[in-house]
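worker-03 picked up job from queue 'complexes'. Input manifest follows; two sequence lines, order preserved.
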Amino acid sequence: MRRIKIEFAYDGRNFYGVQALKDKRTIQGTLEEALSKLLNEPIKIVTAGRTDAGVSATYQVAHFDTNSTIISTNICYAVNKLLPSDLQVLSSKNASENFHARYSAKQKTYKYFVYVSSHTNPVYDNFMYRCDKDLNLGKMIEASEHLIGKHNFKAFATKSNDIKTYDREIKSINIIQNQKLFTFEITGNSFLYNMVRIIVGSLIDIGAEKYAPSHIKEILDSKDRKNAGKLVPSKALFLVNIEY
Amino acid sequence: MRRIKIEFAYDGRNFYGVQALKDKRTIQGTLEEALSKLLNEPIKIVTAGRTDAGVSATYQVAHFDTNSTIISTNICYAVNKLLPSDLQVLSSKNASENFHARYSAKQKTYKYFVYVSSHTNPVYDNFMYRCDKDLNLGKMIEASEHLIGKHNFKAFATKSNDIKTYDREIKSINIIQNQKLFTFEITGNSFLYNMVRIIVGSLIDIGAEKYAPSHIKEILDSKDRKNAGKLVPSKALFLVNIEY
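worker-03 finished. Artifact:
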């Protein structure tokens, strides 16, 4: 047995998320089916991130173990022919047996894209969330600073059953404005269920001047989901980097 | 009769270009059908730019004349309900009878998106052209400077029948690199058929070090299409601004 590390990317809009689910088109299920066919043995993969339904990745990592003697760098070329055009492998190589796509990851970076317009722009709308109110960049940046560091992020997570702790560490939040387009770039050690999208929804409320920037600290301290902003749509969220 | 100016945007991937063609799904045809239905009279529009099949616009302008007494700013809301999700109007207002969407335009700006990767990245591939060779930004910028100003751009155009002159003026070319992503931003008074895509294809040849930057001047001076680079795909080209 040896361990293989793959890098891959997907347009998540027509997938039901990463995690394998019976009778659903998922990233894990689609990759495992193609790899099992190629390597002629049942393959189970472990992905670095388990992105939700509709979320895309320009960069994602997984590992799997195989008995196959195929040259590792050839897996990428061969498996792509068995994969659909919205899920493709970027590289494949041998990894040490200690490498674990999820547990070895030190940090992940997500980007969320927003455009401000009173009308739908069909180009932007493919992969951005439309906000119909002007957004105050300075106030969003000020608000975001309350989230940096180690905190209990329970207020910014959708409830799920298997959570041991709501403590997470956000290493940076960069918000970049280019005229009417805003990019939220969030780096952290790991993220709770829906956490990035609820943080962005909450920062948009600050940008739209519904609340003062300090309200973000009140949401955080309350540990209560109902105080945070809305869950913004999945199509505008992209996993863009994983560091080991 | 009064003149109305509309601003609109479209994801061009499922349109056969702007110009109305019998039995084809075009931007002009789709807009005219919706406007004629709304205003209850036959409407003919004049667009600022006639983008090719597959080309998108985050910003495009048209004008039309109507006898309807509808409040001009309401046209936008009403017509969008009659338009498909990949073509939407951003604003509508009264214009002076001297305003002409095409002839009054002083300059237009296009963006072309390229990513460098040895494998298809499904996210980028939706709206970027994949180049499998590293691109030298400095050499592409040096090459692009030969194109600024008034020139005969015959070498950078696909032959078409109704051309009176190949003289055009390029006001600026900005090439921006963000890691493996390149954006080519080209502003000019007007453009020949396929001109932006042939210029980008030629600059990519320079970036890939197939030719020296000065080769762009040789192509220009030759006035011969066969010396220029390839016509890169339409999906990565976006009309982004028109100035009056």
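worker-03 released lock.
The interface with chain B takes residues 9-11, 56-58, 76, 80, 85-91, 117, 119-127, 238 of chain A (CB under 8 Å).
The first strand of chain A starts at residue 2 and ends at 10.
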